[in-house]
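Retro notes - structure team

What went well: the batch runner handled both jobs without manual restarts.
What didn't: labels got mixed up in the shared folder, which is why I'm recording both outputs here explicitly, each with its sequence directly above its tokens.

Job 1
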Amino acid sequence: VMEALETLNPRLARRLAPLRSAAPEPAVPTADALFDEMTLLNNELANAQRALAKANAELAASNEQKNRLMGMLAHDLRTPLQVVVGFAEMLEQRLDGRLEATERACLERIRESSLSMRHMVEDALSLAALQAGRLRLARRPSDLAALVRRNVSMNRVLAEGKTITIELSVPEHPLPMADIDPAKLDQLLNNLLSNAIKYSDRGGRVGVALGEAPSEGVGWARLRVSDDGRGIPAAELAQLFQPFARTGRLGTEGEGTVGLGLYICRSIVEGHGGRITADSAPGRGSTFTVDLPLVASSP
């Protein structure tokens, strides 16, 4: 239009020239338009919240179903594994002196594998309970020293598979009866000892020491499990007690881990009102220290 106007009326075209660069004023939204847009955004947000709530409910139901299934499966596996261990022990006792070395080694292998599987089953049951928020302690007065002796005797089967010696130290004077859950303390020791054996070389030594915790005062027990294995790098110590924490270490004979044992240990110890710590470095082994109150204490 301006080009045509320059031909027809140059004077008018010069006067209208500033209009070439003038931008139109943006339209100012009215209050009604703003209200409509806010209403639309609120509706979209409400729909998104409803969809998120539905997805969360479905996820919670799916997780609960998974926990129930895992708990049922682990519970059903525990009994036959106990039967296998029991019959292996009975055969070893009844046939003592009549077994050849190969036959005795087979029985030891059966016991060793069954005990390892039973430990994994116990961890699966505990994980299901923890995730469902139902890890309960069945406390009763117990002889902690006798429990530790019995557990070490059982785990010597696993240690002998790698020719590892477990050295036990308990106080000569009796400790007060401990208000604990014996089954959970057994599981705690199983996990600590199986880890110590797993990360120790053949012919190594694992130490188990029970005594009083001097730094905590009267009424506390201290349990230490140490090994002379490969140790843990400082960068991995911080995440050691987290669920499914997988360190860069493999067992000395390639044994793997799912990263649950120490998480369950921490949950058991804290459930008793105690605490667990780890001291380790590459090349100097590891020491796990558990301090437990001998009387009931809230976590």
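Job 2
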Amino acid sequence: ALQFGPILLLMPVSGLIADRVNRRKLLMVTNLCMAALGLGLGLIVLANVATLWEVYAFTFALGLVSAIDAPVRQTFVSELVSERHIPNAVALNSASFNGARLIGPGVAGVLIASIGSGWVLLINVATFGATMAALVLIRSTELNTSAKPKRKRGQIQAGWKYVGSRPDIIVILIMVFLVGTFGFNFPIFTSTMALAFHQGANGYGLLSSVMAIGSVFGSLLAARREKPRLFVVTLASIGFGIATLAAALMPSYWTFAVVLIVVGLSSLTMMTAANAYVQTTTAPAMRGRVMALYMA
């Protein structure tokens, strides 16, 4: 609640910020803030002085920064490529984002079991160096920036009205909400099933890695599509429901692991197609506000 609550609360403001500001510079600021928070938490964990309330505070602070970062990061993709390549770029970005959500917990589970939580947090901080290097090396003169909306009253309300006038986007948002709420709880159900099959942190990490195999395959398929379609989102969500039902019925650890490949494939296909459809069919001046609603 502390990590994701701010995304809901700040969604109208963060979306407008994404439409107004220099996205590359703001991403530098948000990534520095997230690295600093990870460093602080990692140090107090290593010093063995962390309390539950301190973890709550760090988590809430991370949620605040992430609330600003999420729509900016998503919409920045459209500035990196030409208009013709936006669907493929959005698909690759969404695939990397969702793929990381699947792979990250698995890798972290293995590392925590071997070296401890504090060192894993510091490794996470080090990875921000790659992100910062990429942002610095981007040639800002070659970015495809669109005209920023001028400051005036009612811009947040205008974003809501725009979404209200697009029934196709409303359908996507409802589907993403339902599947995200009831289906995208991979760390919870894979760890629970690992325990049910008498496996520890390593067994949990392996399940997440196996699911990532399907997600990587799904990302490659998504990047090949020239144009995202609502039909693909619908078909993939149906496939995801069938795959999770099959996973629930598996009698052993290894049969469950095999079905997770299909779960990863269908889930990533659905979310990638949904993300790409919303971004590529939204007016550039509204993209930040619409994507903030999508992320929420």
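One thing worth noting from job 2: The chain has a mean pLDDT of 85.
We'll revisit the folder naming next retro.
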